[in-house]
Amino acid sequence: MNTTINCLEVRRILGAEPQRRESALMEHCKLCAACSAYMKEMLGLDARLSRALAVNVPEGLEARIVFRTAFRPKRLRTYPWLAVAATILLAVGISFGMWQYQRNSMAALSSALVAHVTNPAEAEALDPGRPVLQDASFVHGVLKHVGVSMQGSMDDITYARACPFRGELVAHLVVRGKDGPVTVLLLPHIHVNKPTHFDEQGYRGEIVPAGDGSIAILANNPSPMQPIEEQFVSMVQWSI
Amino acid sequence: MPVRQHRFEILARALVPSLYRYAYWLAREKALAEDLVQETLLRAWRSLDQLRDEAATRQWLITILRREFARELSKRRDTVDIDGLALADSNSSLGAEDTDIHDVHRAMQKLSPEYREPLVLQVLMGCTTEEIAEQLELSQAAVLTRLFRARNQLRELLNGSTGRLGEEFA
Which end of chain B has the lower number of beta carbons within 10 A, N or C? Predict the structure, then answer.
């Protein structure tokens, strides 16, 4: 047969792609009855195939899909870097918020401490002429009343009283300092994370953590507070 | 109606029937085919603004559907034999009491997936050999071989004979 492609090639092409219509292919099929029959058979097979593949589409499928999208918001495009940035910002925000909260809490605490000490009802506690309490058992009784015990004794305590403070009882002590009275408040119900210094209304002071509670030391005179602070921190034990 | 929604409705109207049929021949289970089409179209909805060319859209949807099917298949593999579902829906999916359609339908079910899928993509979805090769990640020559063998096997199943030339190629 005088064509550019042979029967094997024709059938290889038509068996894979029956719709092919190159001129060489058509020319061959015009002259070759067997290949022409093969082409018709393949086209017939594809027609049967098309009908068989066209299974029934479930009724309402298209409408159901369209309906779902009508009530489904378009998904926002996600930006991974934005999520990371937002997370960092959130973490920074939370940390700053906590820092601010703690800062405000400590500021409020120091204000309350100063307010308690300067309360006229407590004025006698800071009287420089007060004598040192000789009865150690009285001091221990006061401490026990607020849930505090002390290992050892302080020799320079001039005042000891259980005072209500922020709804709880605290031990209000005054120690004779080098340059005047120094107030020590034992706060079994108030926990602080780290020592905090404050300076307010002429009082300077320190709030230090001590076990589950804290100790506040303040004075309106230059008496050194560090030795008193260290002594109380080493001696105090909370019993509540 | 918003333009976006209108565009999607046109897309769904044009492509849902062929996508469902393709999904059916891929999964051979009506319920699964329906789920695949729904999931595919919902993905199209999310990316509608990026879809421009109609042919590319069809190709993209086929890719999504095939991925969804692969995902579903891996989920089911441990619990369900997907091949066991082969003839479960076949009779109920026939459009009419046409014995010829029924015969071809059964013959198609008997083809192995590697031959059936390129044939479905070509005949049902109108994909070119190049597009099929892209979808199945095969060379065009491999796709042509599979298409040829698929038709040859169908002839054998339907007529009981492939003929001498067919055998030489297969």
Answer: N
